[in-house]
Amino acid sequence: MNQLVRLSQIGDADAIAEPSAELRVPFAQSGAFVCKFIIGEPNDRAVCCGAPAPDGKSWCAFHRRIVFEPARPGRLR
Which is one Pfam family of this protein (predicted)? Predict the structure, then answer.
């Protein structure tokens, strides 16, 4: 039997904590494998998150959830 799943039912089961502000670095000095999510206004003195970004991705897990909208679940089979 098919069942509808609502986003509110999925909710905070896999909540991810926001990275520490101590990890932040100037965007121009951010290296590989760090989160490049811009904190504040994007300008010539931009600061990025700086948290570890696994697998060569551009954002850490916390900011990836903000940048990408999750696929809306349909019916489960």
Answer: GcrA
| Cα distance between residue 76 and residue 59, in whole Å | 29
Q: Which residues contact 66 (CB under 8 A, 6 or more apart)?
A: 37
Q: Please give the Cα distance from 42 to 18 (Å, whole number).
A: 20
- Ordered per-residue pLDDT tens for the chain, 77 residues: 444 444 444 454 468 888 888 889 998 888 888 999 999 888 888 999 999 988 888 899 999 888 887 677 766 65
Query: Given 3-state DSSP classes, what are the helix, strand and coil percentages for the chain, each rounded to the nearest 5?
Result: 30, 15, 55
Taking a C-beta distance cutoff of 8 angstroms, is the pair 42, 36 a contact?
no
Which single residue is written with the structure tokens 């999750």?
A: 70
Do residues 52 and 25 touch, judged by C-beta distance below 8 A? no
